[in-house]
């Protein structure tokens, strides 16, 4: 499968989790859409784009167990988090609850939104080793009388843990608390059924584990929450239908939802990455992706145990808490120096993270990785003495 991707053959690429990697044939589809746009930008953006985006959302919704009417494309999951954080209309004294495993950029989003509203952003400590059975209790036990929303990752970035978000969302709904799930690492990595998860808001990337082009992601909003969602950019979607002067993209498809009107139409943009999501879905379907996911999970966990057998450090979680991405504890004290050394001396692209004072090598195993890639990492870490 390595030849199916555009990755530099001189690099041991074990960092799919950061930005993903796009198969060559999917990237070609992406460029084909860009060229088609440039043949007649007015035709493409002004008259065809709404219908094309609708078809792309239908394909993505079918994969995610959702309705296309409840989905909009966004450039990345961080944008999705920002849209929800800006739309909640927090009041002074309100609280947003999260865990201490959340992505730093999204922590910053909530801190800013809460600061501006006079609300509080509070993070619940989820200790390591991680216990999935206790996780929902740990979060819900921290709920207070002013908790308005709960924010949690489906798969964490720093620690690579899979959180049982469906249980949390169900319990939060019973308590009248809104939920936003950050699924940046989930689509294409683990099975995602948005109906079963039941989050009020769920945002996820397509350009990571789904292997779509960079800048393709989505925000899913339950129907009863959609009227309260506002775009971060006010544009033609806030103008009455039919008064856009032919430049809003609505000419070709009249069934545009209010949610799509507000969030999808925010000035001129290149929508080719969104339209290529279908090609990424087709690519994975043709290659029996669940079998590859199982193989990659097994290789990742095997490598984790090899590392543990060498340095004796306990794992942060059981194998069942991981997908294709695992965190391997190491004895290094300067994670950034180790990351640079691995790349500069061994051409190994892999992140080194820190949580709770512990340092981890966050290993991603994707279909293009071989046993030789994993051996190279183990040997390099042995050389580093960690």
CATH topology of the largest domain: Aspartate Aminotransferase, domain 2
Give the mean pLDDT: 95
> What gyration radius follows from the Cα positions, in whole Å?
21 Å
CATH architecture of the largest domain: 3-Layer(aba) Sandwich
Order of helices and strands: EHHHEHEHEHEHEHEEHHHHEHEEEH
Structure notes:
This protein folds into two domains: 2-23 and 287-384, Aspartate Aminotransferase, domain 1 (Alpha-Beta Complex), CATH 3.90.1150.10; 27-283, 3-Layer(aba) Sandwich (Aspartate Aminotransferase, domain 2), CATH 3.40.640.10. Residues 242-246 and 248-253 have low confidence and may be disordered. Helix 2 runs antiparallel to helix 3 (41-64) and helix 4 runs parallel beside helix 5. 42% of the residues lie in helices and 15% in strands. The strands form three sheets. Strands 2-8-7-6-5-3-4 form a seven-stranded mixed sheet, with helices on both faces. It has helices spanning 16-19, 24-39, 41-64, 77-87, 104-117, 132-140, 165-174, 194-197, 258-264, 272-275, 277-286, 289-311, 335-346, 371-384, and strands spanning 12-13, 71-74, 95-99, 120-124, 147-153, 178-183, 201-205, 217-221, 325-330, 348-349, 352-355, 358-364. It is of the alpha/beta class and 386 residues long. It is built from 14 helices and twelve strands. It is globular and about 65 Å long.
């Amino acid at each position: 499968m390595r030849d199916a991707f555009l990755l530099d053959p001189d690099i041991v690429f074990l960092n799919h989790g950061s930005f993903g990697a796009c198969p060559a044939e999917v990237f070609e589809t992406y460029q084909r859409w860009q060229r088609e746009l440039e043949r007649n930008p007015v035709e493409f953006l002004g008259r065809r784009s709404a219908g094309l985006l609708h078809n792309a959302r239908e394909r993505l919704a079918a994969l995610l167990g959702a309705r296309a009417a409840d989905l909009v494309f966004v450039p990345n999951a961080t944008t999705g988090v920002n849209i929800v954080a800006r739309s909640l209309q927090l009041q002074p004294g309100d609280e947003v609850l999260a865990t201490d495993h959340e992505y730093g950029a999204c922590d910053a989003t909530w801190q800013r939104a809460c600061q501006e509203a006079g609300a509080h952003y509070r993070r619940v400590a989820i200790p390591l080793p991680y216990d999935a059975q206790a996780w929902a209790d740990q979060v819900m036990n921290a709920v207070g009388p002013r908790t308005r929303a709960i924010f949690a990752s489906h798969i964490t970035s720093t620690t690579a843990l899979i959180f049982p978000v469906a249980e949390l969302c169900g319990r939060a709904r019973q308590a009248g608390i809104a939920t936003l799930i950050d699924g940046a690492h989930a689509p294409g990595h683990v099975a995602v059924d948005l109906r079963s998860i039941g989050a009020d808001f769920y945002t996820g990337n397509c350009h990571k584990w789904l292997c779509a082009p960079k800048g393709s992601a989505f925000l899913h909003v339950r129907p009863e929450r959609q009227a309260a969602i506002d775009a971060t950019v006010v544009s033609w979607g806030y103008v009455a239908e039919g008064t856009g002067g032919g430049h809003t993209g609505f000419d070709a498809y009249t069934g545009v939802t209010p949610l799509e009107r507000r969030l999808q139409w925010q000035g001129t943009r290149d929508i080719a990455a969104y339209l290529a999501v279908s090609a990424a879905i087709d690519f994975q379907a043709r290659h029996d992706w669940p079998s590859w996911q199982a193989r990659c999970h097994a290789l990742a966990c095997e490598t984790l145990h090899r590392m543990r057998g060498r340095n004796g450090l306990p794992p942060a979680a059981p194998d069942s808490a991981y997908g294709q991405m695992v965190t391997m504890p190491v004895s290094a004290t300067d994670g950034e120096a180790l990351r640079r050394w691995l790349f500069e001396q061994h051409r190994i692209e892999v992140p080194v993270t820190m949580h709770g004072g512990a340092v981890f090598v966050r290993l991603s195993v994707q279909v293009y990785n071989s046993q030789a890639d994993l051996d190279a990492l183990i040997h390099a870490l042995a050389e580093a003495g960690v």
